[in-house]
Every structure is written in C-alpha cells, then in structure tokens.
Automatic annotation (TrEMBL):
GO molecular function, one term: acyltransferase activity, transferring groups other than amino-acyl groups
Designated name of the protein: Transporter
Coiled-coil residues: none
Thiolase C-terminal domain ranges (all copies): 248-378
Lineage: Bacteria, Bacillati, Actinomycetota, Actinomycetes, Jiangellales
Classification via InterPro entries: Thiolase, Thiolase-like, Thiolase_C_2
Length: 386
C-alpha cells in the first residue's frame, strides 16, 4: 500500500440526526463540513473539490457558505443511494490524479421537516414508464417498488418475517449505543416490530428507513494526514454496477438481479481479500430486506445461508458479521448512505466506544440506488507509514 496508488479518508464529520432540526440545511451542512475538516487537521479553506447528490445542498451553496477560495472541481453523482460509495471512487481518481487535494463528499438534508420523500422531485429514470404505467396502478413509492423484490425473495428462498425482524432489531440495538442516532434511547422489541402498521406488504413500519434532518461529510485526500496516534483509513477498492435494465424492476429478468452483483464480483477480483476477511459491513438499509439482498449479492451469503447468517451466525456486535453498527438508515439517520462511510471510518480508527468492533481492519460498505444500482467499497486500517 502506498500513497501513490491509494486514496485515504482523511476526515469525517456529522451533526446529530434528528426528526426535526430548527436550523437551515445550509447550517447543518456547514457544521458537518467544519467537523470533517477539524477531524482531518486542515482548515476548511483547503477543501478544493466537492461532490454532492441531486436534491440536497448544492456545490454553489457549499462554496458560498464556506467562502472556499479555490475550488477546482464540482461534481454530482446521481445513482440514488449508491451515490455515496460510488463517489469514493470518483474522489479517489481526482486526488490521485492531482486534480484536487481535498475532495469533500457532503450530504445536508431536511428529509423529515422539509419536503418529505413523496413531495421531493424524483430522479428515477424512465419517468414516462413511472407516470403512465406504475403510478396509475398505485405503485408510486419506494416501499411499493422494493416490496416486490422482498416478496419474491421470500417466496423463492424462504426468507421470513423473523429474518427481517432481526435486521430491524439489530439496527435499533446498535443505534441505542450511538448518541448521534435519531433513535438513540428508543428501544424496539420484537412484539412492537411485528405489530407495526403495514406500509407495503410485506413491509411494515419498522422495515422502512427513517426520514431525517441532519448532515455528514467525508474528506478524501491522496495523503492520510492525521498523526502517529491514529491509523489511516485507506480506500482499497471501489466499484459500481447497474442492473439489467437499470430503469425498471417490474420486467427485470432475472427478477432479483441487481447491480451490486457485478460490482462485488469486480471488487473481490481486484483485491487479495474476500467477504470472510471483512470485520464488519455497512449495508445500505433503505428497507430490511435490502440488507439481506445485498449481503447475498456482495458474496457474504447465498440464498441457502443468508437466514443462518442473520439469525445464527449473527449480524449484531459480537456476531460473525456485525452490520450497521451505527444503526444505519433504519435507526441512525437517512443521509443517503454517506453516514455508513463515516461509521466505517470511525470503526477502523477504533473510535466507536461501546459499539466498537474489536480489532476491525477491513470493512465493506455498500450502496443501493434507484431501481437496482449498486456500489461497494473496501476500507482498510493502515497503521504504518503511507
């Protein structure tokens, strides 16, 4: 590993994630960016690259709010919840190519107290198909579209409500160890989970991610920064992939195929590591089933073993594969997956206190976007000289 071929996550920062923030989305973003720059040990003025996501705070707003003096690049990655992880690949190429020194990935959103998901502009592809066929049939929300995948998987592979329940309960248990989480100190028991109101069969209330107010930020650099007291976090490999077709679920064949399958296959071929070498996984959890779906697609399990991984081997701290130790989108906050990268970075540094995965050295982070876009990265702890 050397600094000429590997980029690093140099700094991370976040606000607390809440249901309703009184401050503006710009103020939230500035807090997260300031925290990330402080964590990186650089002044904010040294940020010279910005990558954002459609519908959130924009690059012009970041430059204006922070009075950044010399931004060399601005970019938007627009593959939904797969964007945050995919942006790591883009940022790595920029800093390793000398285009910029410190590229910030930022999410600032008022997803609950601002326009709700159903009110925000949709960036899904093939809007003509959506409006003329799906909407008129009553299929017009993410939960309804993704419930089709969940129900099909349950029918074909025997996944049960108990498996989905453990994914939700594990996320909440982890969030109860995380003071920044929206659901901190709000416990969830099996009976409450099972009695949640139906959202889109088989999804009930606690199968669905939060809508949150907050912000987080990640700074990617060619140099690790920091000091001898803190390990560097290297971006060892990142890939993205897209389903066939990428703009439709209803007519996909194979129906359960998603882009993460392609991305993960390329990723594991690119590194001398495999799923069994991962100490934890941060999996994009827009809905409970998508955790199971992506664990399989990324190679951590098969349809025959995914149930055992969840219920027997364990996805909580202390289990075979701790998943979403911060609480994820289900219980920490919905920052479109960038908070998963923040958590993985802190885990690899050993900064997570009661939710720390002992000795964590490699963590996989996935993204799920739109109608099956997928992304995956491996972040690695590096203790020696870069």
């Amino acid at each position: 590993m050397n600094s000429e071929t590997v980029a690093y996550i140099r700094g991370v920062g976040n606000t607390k994630y809440v249901k309703k923030a009184e401050r503006s989305v710009e103020a939230l973003a500035v807090e997260a960016i300031d925290a990330a720059a402080s964590d990186a040990g650089i002044p904010v003025s040294e940020i010279d690259g910005i990558i954002v996501y459609h519908g959130h705070i924009g690059t012009d707003e970041v430059i204006a709010q922070l009075a950044l003096p010399d931004v060399k690049l601005r970019a938007i990655v627009d593959i939904g919840g797969a964007s945050a992880v995919a942006a790591l690949q883009m940022a790595s190429l920029y800093v390793l190519g000398g285009v910029a020194r410190n590229v910030i990935l930022v999410r600032g959103i008022k997803g609950n107290s601002g326009p709700r998901k159903a009110q925000r502009k949709s960036f899904l592809p093939s809007q003509q198909f959506r409006t003329q066929l799906e909407y008129v049939a009553g299929c017009n929300t993410p939960s309804q579209r993704y419930a089709l995948l969940c129900r099909r998987y349950m029918h074909e592979h025997g996944l049960t409500r108990e498996h989905l329940a453990e994914i939700a309960l594990a996320a909440r248990w982890h969030a109860n160890l995380n003071p920044d989480a929206q659901m901190y100190e709000r416990t969830l028991e099996l009976e409450e989970y099972l009695s949640g109101r139906v959202i889109a069969d088989p999804y009930r209330l606690y199968d669905c991610c939060l809508e949150s107010d907050g912000a987080c930020a990640v700074i990617v650099s060619a140099q690790p920064g920091g000091d001898d007291q803190r390990p560097a976090v290297a971006i060892l490999a990142t890939e993205e992939g897209h389903a066939d077709p990428p703009d439709d679920i209803s007519n996909r064949d194979p129906f359960l195929h998603v882009g993460l399958e392609k991305a993960a296959a390329r990723l594991w071929n690119a590194v001398s590591l495999g799923p069994d070498d991962m100490d934890a996984a941060m999996v994009y959890d827009c809905f409970t089933f998508e955790v199971a779906h992506q664990l399989e697609a990324a190679g951590f399990a098969t349809p025959d073993t995914i149930g055992r991984l969840i219920l027997e081997d364990g996805i909580r701290l202390g289990g075979k594969l701790p998943v979403n130790t911060h609480g994820g989108l289900l219980s920490e906050g919905h920052m479109v997956g960038l908070n998963h990268i923040v958590e993985a970075t802190r885990q690899l540094r050993g900064e997570c206190g009661p939710r720390q995965v002992p000795g964590a050295r490699h963590i996989a982070v996935t993204g799920w976007g739109n109608l099956g876009d997928g992304s995956i990265t491996i972040l690695g702890r590096h203790d020696g000289p870069a």
